[in-house]
Design goal:
The complex is a heterodimer of chains A (197) and B (348). Helices cover 61% and strands 12% of the residues of chain A. With 197 residues, chain A is of the alpha/beta class. Chain A has a 5-stranded mixed beta sheet, with helices on both faces. In chain B, a hairpin with a 2-residue loop joins β1 and β2. The two termini of chain B are 31 Å apart. The chains are: A alpha/beta (197), B alpha/beta (348). Chain B: This is ABC-type nitrate/sulfonate/bicarbonate transport system substrate-binding protein.
Chain lengths: 197, 348
């Protein structure tokens, strides 16, 4: 069993950070700190002396981490882990999942790569979870908009529900837009009409 | 993401960091200057320069608003993975300010109160800072920058040198995101910082510190941000690059044409996808009147000679590692060849 590694995790998505921590724990590693909006990443790195730092690519703190090796006079001086020297696919997967890894001197690349891959997998599954959720929310919002647009059309065009829906669908087809988008436009126009603008 | 053609317009994505000198791509998109060149440009707001850099190198962005030294640092392989990168257009000049906490700046000669306005000798402030620093003793003051390969970093070093201060040993340098600088200053975690607008003026408005010098005093009209594209992208998409350049020069000409346009540009910058609340204190986009003397628009043509102050610092950093900056690398990176080709086509 190889020595467990100390990992500092910088991620303000609480659920995702918990997923990564759990997965790394199962691999026998120790997540020393799960940092959300760190007041001072410099101090945290100095205090915890991690072997590896895993950071959300979208974190504004990434520049702080990225420059420590250039500006710090004393250790630790974490450097970005370039999987491309070893495996270009890992680098691309990391970019697409939105995660990157920084390494403190002297770690065997294969061990870092294994850790990065665990993080990539968790970041990617969180991403697809969120995409599904956003889609579901969007569909719900679309349904509400379509109902509202139908109601307004029925009132203004003096038609029934079926005719109102067909009108929306035709508008959507003519413009090459989603029916939810067309509904939003119709609501906007008819509500302004009602307010006499 | 490589440029692809849909519905007659070529779709591409440019990365930017929310700063006032991201104005030209925003104006070019909102004002239809990209569309007039047949481009449908999405602007992707990025939170860190290193992430913007890595996305550009990996092809996830077609181009980006960049710190002027960054394309050269990428080409040299000293920031991120080595990636030949070009700076075919200057997006803005000046705009950096050096802010010191109230405690350090009290009684210092300040750029905006001096007569003639904007031009006190920056060395006076630096010598004053040096006196206080040596008198005070204790741990070295902590000064923040946004990225090591930035004009802010080099201008801070140069200002310190004017006071006879060794930037490597007498002060501690850290990197912080610009949006967190003012807060860190007020909480006493840093003693000062050098940053691009609007963050210097905003910090001064909040009252935690004062602008004691500007990049414009040290390096007047030095290119501060550039358009960055990888050399391989430029080679694969020469017509798209030319269209991008013309879209941006179109935006710059429009911005300079009337004060009404500057107010309209301010409204676009204050939209949520761009600078949002960081631009809400501005009445118009005429920043060259403030102590930062920022210039957006005007001459967008790059030139290796104009980069000499920046290049000297980069060369110094390389020499510390036993290397040196080859003039050919500088010339290749900031060559005006793409700019000239794009703008001559327009006239023809």
């Amino acid at each position: 069993m190889p020595q467990p590694l100390k990992i500092l995790l910088v991620d303000d998505e609480i659920v995702r950070a918990a997923m990564v921590e759990e997965a790394l724990g199962q691999e026998g590693h120790e997540v020393v700190c799960r940092l959300q909006s760190p007041a001072s990443l410099n101090e945290m790195v100095a205090r915890h002396a991690p072997d590896v730092v895993i950071i959300d690519m979208e974190s504004p703190d990434r520049d702080t981490l990225d420059s420590m090796s250039l500006l710090n006079r004393e250790n630790p001086r974490p450097v970005v882990f370039f999987a491309d020297q070893h495996q270009p696919d890992t680098m691309q997967a990391a970019l697409e999942a939105g995660v990157s890894a920084y390494v403190v001197d002297g770690l065997v690349p294969s061990r870092v790569k294994a850790i990065l891959e665990v993080a990539i997998a968790r970041f990617a599954s969180f991403q697809s979870m969120r995409t599904e959720l956003d889609k579901a929310r969007g569909q719900l919002a679309d349904r509400k908009r379509i109902e509202r647009a139908k109601g307004l059309l029925m009132k203004h065009q003096d038609c029934d529900e079926e005719q109102a829906y067909r009108m929306l669908r035709k508008l959507a087809m003519d413009r090459g837009q989603r029916i939810g988008e067309v509904a939003a436009n119709v609501i906007d126009i008819l509500e302004r009409l009602e307010k006499g603008l | 993401m490589t440029a692809s053609r849909t519905a007659g317009l070529e779709r591409l994505t440019l990365g930017f960091i929310p700063l006032l000198d991201a104005a030209l791509p925003i104006i070019a998109r909102e004002g239809g200057f990209f569309a007039a060149e047949g481009l449908d440009v999405a602007l992707s707001r990025e939170n860190a320069w290193s992430t913007l850099r890595d996305k550009l190198a990996a092809g996830l962005l077609d181009g980006a608003h960049m710190l002027a030294p960054l394309p050269l640092a990428m080409s040299l392989g000293i920031s991120g993975a080595a990636c030949e990168t070009l700076a075919p257009l200057v997006l803005g000049r000046n705009g950096n300010t050096l802010v010191l906490s109230s405690r350090w700046s009290e009684g210092m000669p300040l750029p905006e109160t001096a007569i003639p306005p904007g031009d006190p000798d920056p060395a006076a402030g630096a010598r004053d800072f040096a006196r206080r620093l040596r008198h005070r003793g204790g741990p070295p003051p902590c000064l923040a920058i946004v990225h090591p390969f930035s004009c802010q970093h080099y201008q801070l070093r140069e200002w310190l040198a004017l006071g006879g201060i060794d930037a490597d040993h007498e002060v501690k340098r850290v990197v912080l995101p610009p949006s967190r600088m003012a807060e860190a200053l007020e909480e006493g975690r840093i003693d000062g910082f050098c940053v691009g607008e609007p963050w210097g003026s905003l910090a001064q408005r909040r009252g935690g510190g004062r602008i004691v010098a500007s990049g414009a005093q040290l390096w007047p009209d030095h290119p501060e941000k550039v358009l960055g594209v990888t050399a391989s992208w430029a080679e694969r998409h020469p017509a798209t690059l030319a269209a991008l350049i013309r879209g941006l020069t179109g935006a710059a000409d429009w911005l300079g044409a009337s004060p009404e346009h500057a107010r309209q540009a301010r409204d676009w910058l204050a939209l949520p996808p761009y600078l949002d609340r960081a631009a809400s204190h501005l009445e118009t986009l005429a920043p060259d009147t403030g102590p930062a003397r920022q210039r957006l628009g005007g001459d967008l043509r790059p030139s290796p000679a104009a980069m000499a102050p920046m290049a000297a610092h980069l060369d110094h950093a390389l020499r510390a590692r036993g290397g040196r900056l080859a003039p050919a690398r500088l010339s290749a990176c900031y060559s005006p060849v793409h700019f000239d080709a794009a703008t001559h086509q327009e006239r023809a």
